[in-house]
Every structure is written in structure tokens, then in C-alpha cells.
Design a protein that fits this description.
By secondary structure, this protein is of the alpha/beta class. The protein has 12 helices and 10 strands.
Length: 255
């Protein structure tokens, strides 16, 4: 139900329950957690790409499974990373690119929002159906979505349960790019390889500065950047800067 492929310092995680629209069963949530933790510790991996098999990215929690388990809805409010895929992704120190191949619904929408960058196929669609199901989001959608697309647009989506197409998602700032289905994985992989050409320690620290600062006021964020930047930059020598400057110039000539 989960496939992991590694190449050139990039790991592709594919949710592989296409017959169930990649619904996040208890077993799949655990497998995703274990894979992300293992890849976070893997010295041969710098960047992760998350996608789905078939016509869905993920339809969110497996409602069929939950319907047979009276305690199952507790997963919607789980705070442990093994039960909460959003936490598993957010706690990963390495960049996670979401390659959104199809529908990302409710909990699946929350999983998409946990990624650091979103590349969407023209087949991608997003929907928050929590209200229509009669439950409230517990993996962060009510807070992260307004901060991403604005409070009025977030209310439009969440209080209607309507679908958002890929092109509108791009116009609203929800996704970084929209590409044709056949270009989705090549585009995501190229971006992942661009990131992976940077030392993983640098990637992780920069991601941390952005993520932790985003949760603070501007003044607090500036203080955080100053503290972490000063500690890091003290370890950088002029020789290191010169070597990397030459590499940047060479890369610029090739692009």
C-alpha cells in the first residue's frame, strides 16, 4: 500500500491504494509514518516527493474503516505522528514536495497542506468536506488553509464543501505550479534534484527557519532568523563561500 523509490538523493513515496482512492487507513498511516521517519534518517536521501497512485492523491481518512470502528474517529484528532500523517510530514526535517496527481479531499487536503511545495496535475482537485461529513478538522486544515489562501477563500471552500480545480488553486496561491499529467512527476523530480544539489544540512536548517518563523510574529521571526543564522554562519569559511560561488556561476551558465 506504500511504495518507496530512491534515486539521486530523492525518495518518491507513492500512496498505493488506488482502488480506495488512497484512503488513509490505519495501516497506511502507520506505513507512511515509518517511511518518512526512515527517510529522514537516511543519509542517501535529501528530498522527499509524495504522490498517489491512480486518480487520487488521497481521499483522506478511510471512512469505510472508521464506520466499522466506534473509536475510529479519534484518528481525526490524533496528535501522534504514527496516527497523524500531517505530523509525520511536518516533523520531517527534509523538504517534502507534494506531487498532487488527483483529488485531495478533506484529510487528503490536510496532507497536501503539510508539504513544503505543491506541484499539481491539471487533474488535481481539492475539497474540504469536513462540514458535509459532520466533523471538524483536527489535522490543521482550519488554521493552515486561511493562512495559505486567505480567510475569505478558505471559508468559501470549507463552508460549502465545493471542489477547487487546479488552475484556480494556482491562482489562489495554494499550489506552486500546474502541469499536464504526464509532466507531473518529471517536474517534481527536477525540482527535487535541484534542492538535493544543496547540502542536506543546509536544506534542513533553512526549512526549519521558515517553518518556525512562520508560526511567530514578524519581530519574533526576525529574532529567530538572527539567532539561527548567526550560529550557522560562524561555521562557514571564506574558502567554502568561494567554492560554492564558483559552483553557482557554473550552474547559471548551464541553465
Amino acid at each position: 500500500m506504500l511504495i518507496v523509490d530512491k534515486t539521486d538523493r530523492v525518495a518518491v513515496i507513492t500512496l498505493n491504494r488506488p482502488e480506495a482512492m488512497n484512503a488513509l487507513s490505519r495501516a497506511l498511516r502507520a506505513a507512511l509514518h515509518d517511511a518518512v521517519v526512515a527517510l529522514a534518517d537516511d543519509p542517501e536521501v535529501s528530498v522527499l516527493v509524495l504522490t498517489g497512485a491512480g486518480r487520487a492523491f488521497t481521499a483522506g481518512l478511510d471512512l469505510k474503516e472508521l464506520g466499522s470502528d466506534p473509536k475510529g474517529l479519534g484518528a481525526a484528532n490524533a496528535t501522534g505522528a504514527a496516527e497523524n500523517p500531517v505530523m509525520a510530514i511536518r516533523e520531517c526535517p527534509k523538504p517534502v514536495i507534494g506531487a498532487i496527481n488527483g483529488v485531495a479531499i478533506t484529510g487528503g487536503f490536510e496532507v497536501a497542506l503539510a508539504c513544503d511545495v505543491l506541484i499539481a496535475s491539471t487533474n488535481a482537485r481539492f475539497a474540504d468536506t469536513h462540514a458535509r461529513v459532520g466533523i471538524m478538522p483536527g489535522w490543521g486544515l482550519s488554521q493552515r488553509l486561511p493562512r495559505t489562501i486567505g480567510v475569505y477563500r478558505a471559508k468559501e471552500l470549507s463552508l460549502s464543501g465545493n471542489f477547487l480545480d487546479a488552475r484556480t488553486a494556482y491562482e489562489w496561491g495554494l499550489v506552486n505550479r500546474v502541469v499536464e499529467p504526464e509532466a507531473l512527476m518529471p517536474t517534481a523530480m527536477q525540482l527535487a534534484k535541484d534542492m538535493a544539489s544543496i547540502p542536506v544540512e543546509t536544506l534542513s536548517l533553512y526549512k526549519r527557519i521558515i517553518d518556525e518563523g512562520y508560526d511567530l510574529s514578524l519581530g519574533e521571526g526576525m529574532a529567530l532568523e538572527q539567532r539561527l543564522s548567526t550560529a550557522n554562519n560562524r561555521t562557514v569559511t571564506p574558502e567554502m563561500v568561494e567554492a560554492r560561488r564558483a559552483a553557482i556561476q557554473a550552474r547559471g551558465r548551464l541553465q
